[in-house]
Amino acid sequence: MLTNNGFPSMSNLGTTIDFSPTLVNRIAQAPSILFLTGAGVSAESGVATFRAADGLWSKFRPEELANVDAFLANPQMVWEWYQSRREVVLNARPNAGHYAMAAFEGVIPETTVITQNIDGLHQEAGSRDVVELHGNIRKNFCQGCGKRYDDVDFLTEQLVQQCGDCGGMIRPDVVWFGELLPQQAIARAEFLARKAHVIFSVGTSSLVWPAAGIPLIGLEAGAYIVEVNPDPTPLTNHAHESIRGTSGDVLPRLLERVVGS
Ligand code: BJW
Ligand code: ZN
Known about the structure:
single chain; about 260 residues; alpha/beta; six-stranded parallel beta sheet; two-stranded antiparallel sheet; 11 helices; elongated; disordered N terminus; binds ligand BJW; binds zinc ion
């Protein structure tokens, strides 16, 4: 039984999932696997997703909040929105899905997590190799001169902060629509996708690019593509397998199945 790394004992799990032998064998023999994750992975930690009926974008329009023009036009509004989300993230804890992905490292040492999430929960769960495509809400930088403010805790600041060097506005270190992804992160993600033997797309709607293209790059290079999501996405028709369920439910069971194989 696997109870290391903090994720729950499998003995209490209810109905079984019949994972395909092909999938189990592929994972057991894979020199490297890759998890591409999205907001759904943190849903079971209480962090809202974006595009669900009750998700963030149902209450707030992305074009008003998640792009640089919105920030320049109304910095205070955007700052407050991120402050409220920071509070949620800092109070959230990793869930069984995060812990299972971290524990896969004990089975396949070359396990990488490429995440669109900005909450840092994969690292908190113990994943050692995490590539953040869309930044990290815990960090900040100056919109004017780029100076980093990573170690400054702005959590209690209600007003948008100004840079001590240039007087510019300080913003969260997240990637907004129309902005380039951190070049090193996307380059490494594409490199890893080309060499991974199994790629999991977990908890993402596969709508936002270039992240949505990562499994497709892997597919072209010969990887076995597996989607874990309660709902279909544009990736579904390209994936070798789609497992309909939540990451916190499916991934610990899959890990146990692979370890027991
Ligand atoms: C569960 C679950 C459970 C629920 N378990 N699952 C090519 C074609 C078309 C457009 C473009 C393109 N290339 C670039 C673009 C433009 C744009 C884009 O993709 N637009 C599309 C939306 C049309 N991309 C960009 O602008 C990117 N920049 C860029 O490409 O620069 C160069 C360029 C610029 C302009 C033109 C061309 C090139 C930047 C993208 C930045 C995205 N930023 C955000 C906000 C981050 C900050 C913040 O948090 O506020 O990132 S948007 C938002 O979406 C966030 C997420 O990371 C991202 C993805 O969302 P995700 O994670 O998939 O969440 P949801 O809510 O959509 O889905 C959750 C899923 O989980 C669902 O499927 C559920 O079913 C499932 N689920 N519970 C498992 N328990
Ligand atoms: Zn500055």
